[in-house]
Amino acid sequence: MKKAALLVVLSSSAFLSGCVGLSEMNEMQTMMDDYTNNDFVSLTAEPLSLPIQGIWSGNMGPFLVTMKLQEDGNGEMCSSYAGTDNVSRLKYVDDVIYSQEGGRFTIMAHSPDSMTLGSPYESSISNRFKEDSALIEASNYCQTYFNS
Length: 148
Description:
This protein is α+β, with helices and mostly antiparallel strands. The protein has a single domain, classed as Lipocalin. It has helices at residues 2-10, 22-36, 140-147; strands at 54-60, 63-69, 74-81, 84-93, 96-99, 104-110, 114-118, 127-131. It has an 8-stranded antiparallel β-barrel with strand order 1-2-3-4-5-6-7-8. The longest helix has 15 residues, at 22-36. The two termini are 20 Å apart. 34% of the residues are buried.
């Protein structure tokens, strides 16, 4: 399960592209540092300063991801890919969303209907999420999880 969660976070980076140069090696070191020096439990979630409370669904690489963000800055991320399902905790701190696996996502853009997340790693791609309070875009597993 933890390997699947780590893949969700890593899938939006050049790490999975197979093309690794010197710049990407330095970037991977920073990314791996985030995971190996993970200090999620010491982070204190802050109330959301942006209007992003709610449920959001989108893709991160091959994973279908649904996030639920609460007004107090805590949340959960549910992901599914190829029969592997995972749920992890999230915390919002200084306009960054941190995952319990050590990943971090910056909020690049948001509107009532969409949110775009990026990561601090140079070659990462942005991931677009749709507002999904009805869980229409969520995987079957995540629909069941968030409805329970």
